[in-house]
Amino acid sequence: MKQDELSARLASGRNFFQAHKKNLSLAVAVSAGALALGLVLFFYIRSQQTRAAAAFAEALNTYHAPVLTNPPAVPNLESYKTNDDKNQKALEKFNAVARSYSFYTAGRLARYYAAICLRELGKYPEAEKEFLALAEFRDTRLASLAKVGLASVYELTNRSSEAEKVYKDLEEHPTEAVPKAVALMSRADLAKKSNPAEASTIYQQIQKDFPGTPAADYAGQMLAELPH
User: Fold this and answer.
1) Does residue 53 lie within any of the structural domains?
2) For a surface tag, which of 52, 148, 186, 188 has the fewest beta carbons within 10 Å of its beta carbon?
3) Total domains in the fold of the chain
4) How far is Cα 69 from Cα 80, in angstroms, rounded to an integer?
5) What pTM value is reported for the model?
6) Residue 107 structural domain
7) How many Å apart are CA 180 and CA 210, to the nearest integer?
């Protein structure tokens, strides 16, 4: 009986396989195709990320290139005669990276640096527009950096009250990129120009809340420079 039962089960299995052979083959083919597509996408994304990082690094090298009136005869030394020349070239490169790789971290960082270049070139309305857009990003680190850039444009265009609001917002919502101490220092530096007493209060707060840190050391230096 046991032998007959085993034979019946084997026969049933063979019959099932024969009846569903095409469906099983199709399922295997679909799974293999999905795996192959996944691998292709993975390597494509990795390739794009590598290209984006390389393009961003090249733009960053331009941004940090030296400004030399009479550059020495050094092979492959990238230098510029004026800051405007350098920032204009860096802006072009950052914009190219931002356009080509907008879905990648390097592309988003390139857009942020492009906004910085616009600010350095004195193109404040364009810089403000870009910083405002970046400040809405879900990436809180990049958004907080953009808010600092936005506040700097407000300062440069004599809108101190708006800059102060941004710094206070950053104090209330610190990030790894812009810690509370940095936001406090920025607000204190802003107040130092028009309200030394308020600046003094903020610098003292920094010393109290962040003892033994570079922020506290900086606050001490700034306090020594304030009128007594």
Assistant:
1) yes
2) 148
3) 1
4) 8
5) 0.78
6) 44-68+77-121
7) 10
CA 29/CA 37 separation, integer angstroms: 12
Q: Give the residue carrying structure tokens 């996944």.
A: 38
pLDDT tens digit sequence for 86-144 = 999 999 999 999 999 988 899 999 999 999 999 999 999 999 999 999 999 989 999 99
What is 99-140 written as a DSSP string? HHTTTSHHHHHHHHHHHHHHHHTT-HHHHHHHHHHHTT-S-H
Q: How far apart are CA 40 and CA 45, in angstroms?
A: 9
Residue 67 bridge partners (DSSP): 80
Q: Which residues are paired to 80 by β-bridges?
A: 67
Which two structure tokens, joined as six digits, stand for 145?
């950096």
| Phi, psi for residue 67 in degrees, rounded to 5 | -105, 115
Q: Is residue 60 one of the residues assigned to a domain? A: yes
